[in-house]
Design a protein that fits this description.
Radius of gyration: 24 Å
Low-confidence stretches: none
Number of helices: 15
Oligomer: single chain
Number of strands: 23
Helix content: 25-40%
Structural class: alpha/beta
Largest sheet: 7 strands, mixed
Distance between the termini: 53 Å
Length: 470
């Protein structure tokens, strides 16, 4: 779109202020702002201003909300044969190169006190490996074990793309073949004033922010990643986010259940730590499997219990999914990702009409984003599979307290101590915690089951010892 067309479109969608702003800039500034505007779908933005910015869209809760059924972590007698077939199906998909890994890594580490991409954050207890390396070693191990490299799709953001690419290059891509890594940027959306004007962060720059993890499905299409998957014969994506080093990037059973059941989008769940834990809730609402945010689930429902005292709504969402490539293509058909938009009122530092910098002390703007879990009710045969929190979920989100580097380090040590104990190694305990620092590289074992097949170099761990296996 040329400058004249952009100016005309801005007037059509009520952005006369931006037209005047373009007139006030020098050539370099005007080119920068025009490039940002050219990357936006201004027709869509015009519609969203009317439906989501100038007014709050009315969101009715479903009338009939029930707990979601999920496949158990351990099969009962009626499912044992299904699970055996599912594991074999997952293994076959990997041997045939039909699985890709999709890492959502657009975030920064600022909440952790780290200035840079969150994936650079050192997270393991002994070697202090960054999150990116933890995932790379795990995917390399699966590629090694199944004789086919796993294509790795990594979504960055405008804020961290260049640094992420440089970090991978600096570390030799952590042993990964660069030809099997496909990096691309997440889409961006401008912030708006409550009156519907796009806000500026600088005189020549919009106040942009990522379009939400749901936008990852749009970015897969626009970046050419989906075309790359088709070229390689990838049929399924294993989706995970950058802040959880315990995630099983590849899970043969989960992928096999996903494929055998004909599911277009499958999800993992864990039992919630309490009724009001800040995770989404898998429910069946008006007959459709979906996720209701913790802030939207009425407390009267969140607190409900079963006859045995357990929580009735106890299926927490942890942002681990399997998606069919054909489903992502269908969602993008027609050039528009078919997911709802969510509105959030935020404090947005910006430049006012007089050119003054504003640092608001209360919300002054609207940000719009899409959520990946909103694709679940659009999928055919979506399923939920129960995993174990201690095995697979300990994110690093906060500098201290819950979901912090300290709790994640603790949980990594606990998991690896448990793996060793299951393999017959005596692990010392003190006050209910392992009395040793233990780290197992995914290149040594990706699971407790695989560790049991290794010839371990010890039968006992000494109190206070640091044990690293690679």
């Amino acid at each position: 779109m040329n400058e004249a067309a952009i100016r005309s479109k801005l007037v059509q969608v009520g952005q006369d202020r931006l037209v005047r702003q373009l007139d006030s800039l020098d050539d370099a500034g005007r080119r920068r702002l025009l490039a940002q505007l050219a990357a936006l779908d201004l027709d869509l933005i015009g519609r969203l201003i009317e439906s989501h910015v100038k007014r709050k869209p009315h969101m009715d809760l479903p009338h009939d909300i029930r707990p979601a059924d999920s496949y158990p972590r351990t099969p009962d007698n009626t499912r044992r044969e299904l699970y055996q077939r599912a594991v074999e199906r997952g293994r076959r998909l990997l041997r045939e190169g039909k699985v890709g890994a999709f890492l959502v890594a657009g975030g920064q580490g600022s909440r952790l006190g780290y200035e840079g991409p969150k994936g650079e954050y050192p997270v393991t207890p002994i070697r202090r490996k960054p999150l990116f390396q933890v995932f790379a070693e795990q995917l390399r191990a699966f590629g090694r074990d199944y004789g086919r490299p796993i294509p790795w799709y990594i979504m960055t953001s405008d804020a961290n793309d260049a640094r992420t690419r440089a970090f991978f290059q600096k570390h030799g891509h952590f042993g990964y073949d660069p030809a099997d890594i496909f990096m691309f940027q997440q889409g961006m959306m401008p912030a708006f004033s409550f009156e519907g004007h796009m806000l500026l962060s600088e005189p020549d720059s919009l106040a942009l922010s990522p379009d939400g993890h749901g936008g990852s499905l749009r970015a897969l299409d626009r970046s050419g990643a989906l075309a790359d998957m088709r070229r390689r014969g990838v049929e399924h994506l294993s989706y995970f986010q950058v802040d959880n080093p315990l995630v099983h990037c590849i899970d043969e059973l989960f992928l096999g259940l996903h494929d055998l059941t004909g599911s277009e989008m499958s999800s993992k769940t864990i039992a919630k730590s309490g009724p009001l834990e800040k995770v989404g809730n898998f429910v069946v609402a008006d007959g459709k499997l979906q996720v209701i945010e913790y802030s939207d689930l009425p407390e009267t429902l969140a607190m409900q219990t079963n006859a045995d005292g357990s929580l009735r709504f106890n299926a927490g969402s942890i942002a681990i999914h399997a998606l069919r490539v054909s489903f992502i293509e269908r969602l993008n058909r027609g050039g528009q990702l078919q997911l709802p938009w969510h509105r959030a009122e935020k404090k947005v530092p910006c430049i006012d009409e007089s050119g003054n910098r504003v640092y608001p002390d209360k919300p002054n703007g609207v940000k719009l984003e899409q959520f990946v879990f909103d694709a679940i009710p659009l999928a055919q045969n979506p399923i939920v599979y129960t995993t174990d929190r201690a095995e697979e979920f300990s994110p690093v989100k906060n500098a201290e307290g819950v979901d912090s580097p300290a709790t994640c380090r603790r949980d990594q040590i606990r998991r690896h101590a448990r793996w060793l104990a299951e393999a017959g190694v005596t692990v010392p305990m003190k006050d209910g915690e392992p009395d040793a620092v233990i780290e197992i590289s995914p290149l040594y074992a990706t699971s407790a089951e695989q560790l049991r097949t290794r010839r371990l170099p010890m039968k006992t761990v000494a109190a206070g010892e640091s044990v690293y296996l690679e």
